[in-house]
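WP5 quarterly update. Target: Peroxidase. Source organism: Linum trigynum. Length: 335 aa.
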Amino acid sequence: MKKGTTAAVGFILGLLLFLSGDPICYGALQVGFYRGKCGFADVEAIVGGVVSAQFFTDPSLLASLIRLHFHDCFVNGCDGSILLDGPDSEKTASPNQSVRGYEIIDQAKDAVEKICPGVVSCADLIAIAARDAVFLSGGGIYRVQTGRRDGLVSSADIANVTLPGPSITVPQAIAAFADKGLTAVDMVLLLGAHSVGVAHCSFLSERIHNFKGSGKPDPSMDQFTVNTLRSRCPINAIENTVNLDQNPFSPLVLDNSYYQNILLRRGVLQIDQELGMSRFTRPIIANLANSVDFPARFGAAMVRLGAVGVLTGTQGEIRSSCRVVNKAVKKDKSG
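Structure tokens (predicted):
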């Protein structure tokens, strides 16, 4: 590792060590839950080292970790169920087939298991890694709550994997988030993660080429943006990707330019642009576009997301491998 990279990783680990601090309780979860449970080892710093190393190899993976956390929490709560392998597991469902970051969680699990076996849940590893990804993306730092346990069930059934899609209406999106105990403000804040994300052309092809069968692009989209996206997403080029934040100067920076672009009619996904037109969300978009405290507010929304449907206490289990439940692990070892 280069000298500059080593120094950067050292600074990050030091910051994460400070943030893990003494335990602070928030309901069933608490900041610093693993403090003292693994001897002198700091679990969050170990995970931070894994995520930081990946950041310097492929910065685009940071958006993947934030998305992984969202997809896990929105189905059955933040229980790590998206990590389980299987022919009909959650990760095989259509909305999850483009989710990445599983290998990073595997690496983090291996690292903590070597030092502290059977203590740290996979669900917490996702939450910690997402927090580190937010920080490394320039989105500020927040104290992550831990103490989750891992779920035992993972199903790709369409009734189980109900994630809001890119063409959902604003009222439908508000209702979907409300079902998880999250407000419209939480929703708009969390969608700010689109400032570091990408989308496959298949999700916007109709909008830029044949909006509602008109043979024309969506009239709510700025023409320059239409032309830019068409150059990257010609008809039938559905596997190409585009940045969800059309600010060319900060495509990998988690900031409020996502909201600024929406006000300029440069939202890439239909739901993005509709946030700026709906009477329910336009005032929130306008406020965030001009705010200086977006990082702190985004971090607070991530904490609220991370508390959705968690298992704690004696619920669930602490998996030995994030990809299988413990009974399966024991069976494999016994032959």
